[in-house]
Amino acid sequence: MSALTDAIKKVATGPHLSKDLSLEEARAAMSDILSGDADPVQAAIFFISLRIKRETHDENLGTYQALQACTTQYSANVEQLLLLSDPFNGFNRHCPVHAFLPAVLAASGLPTLSQGVHEMGPKFGVTHSQVLSLAGIDVDSSVEQARDRINDREIAWAYLDQAQATPALFALQALRTRMIKRPSLATLEKMVMPIKALGKTHIQIGFVHKAYPTVLAEMAQATDFSSALIIRGIEGGVLPTLREPANCFQAMSGEANSCVLNPADFGLSQTTRGVLPSQNTEVTAAETLDVGLQALSGQSGPAFDSLVYGAAIGLWHCGLHDSQQRAVDHVRQVIQSGRAKAYFERTL
Questions:
Q1: For residue 292, how far is the Cα from the chain centroid?
Q2: Which of 310, 301, 266, 333 is nearest to 99 (CA)?
């Protein structure tokens, strides 16, 4: 009898008889799945049963620990590092100019790492990987190479693909697509930490459903994150709407404290929530690259404001600026001076 089958017997017995797993049981079951030897049907039953029952903190943490244990890990020689955590399955209603945020943040003094995959079901939206690859950036760098880029003060940012950092999790992509519904992995994979700072490692992460700020704050405290900025973001991403205030959260010690982010407080005024495709309703990597490069060159519009807003809230949260207005002013200068674009182009 495997740890996975034992776990299924507990979590898949109906709405009244299902039992929660201990941290150790969840970690062992997830380790069985990541080994590659588990029956894919049993793995799918496990994930869907947890979702129906609703995962507990111990179940999430045990699953996360199994993911982290099979992740290649390095420490970067930086005092602070921000992990920018967009959904791995991408975006299909708004152009994900967030792909350019790590370069803007790095140029603004905050080393930044983003992670993802080229595509992920069931959404199959446009991803950071697709946009950066089209720009000519190597999206298949090893964890060590990504660490070296972060250590380089003239770059200080990197994109890291799950296939390089956590290949055992990457191998579950086909199964996850066949499951249709997203398992807890869709949240937990965004918190995997292949690279951490010598000092503080922060995370800027998005959510959609109201229950998740507490989940994310508890997970950030239970892992090695120094803080979490939890964004009610467009399509669950790290950028709040440009049009109106967003109910977001800051977590410094495990508790999710409400933090309303208002674009007007950052000197921004847009009638659109984010960067919409111009020609039709289809979001493409090509158009995202085009509008992102224009924004990096200082061209005004929703893409420029998205980069200013996303970077400013990250700098403010991590304590590099003591006011939102100073953070905005700094980011504007970094972009308009060409510094952010130079940081982006040094990875080409």
A1: 19
A2: 310
CATH 3.90.190.20 fits 76-345, yes or no: no
Would you kindly state where each structural domain of the chain is located, as residue ranges? Answer: 3-69, 76-345
In degrees and rounded to multiples of 5, residue 89 shows phi and psi of -90, 5
Assign a CATH topology to domain 3-69.
1.20.970
**How far is residue 321's CA from residue 327's CA, in Å, rounded to a whole number?**
6
Among 309, 109, 311, 81, residue whose Cα is nearest residue 202: 81
The predicted-structure confidence for 89-106, as pLDDT tens digits, reads as follows 999 999 999 999 999 999
pLDDT (tens digit per residue) in 194-250? 999 999 999 999 999 899 999 999 999 999 899 999 999 999 999 999 999 999 999
Distances (CA, A) of 280 to 195, 200, 219, 268: 38, 42, 39, 25
Buried b (16+ CB within 10 A) or exposed e, 75-102: ebebebbbbbbbbbbbbeebbbbbbbbb
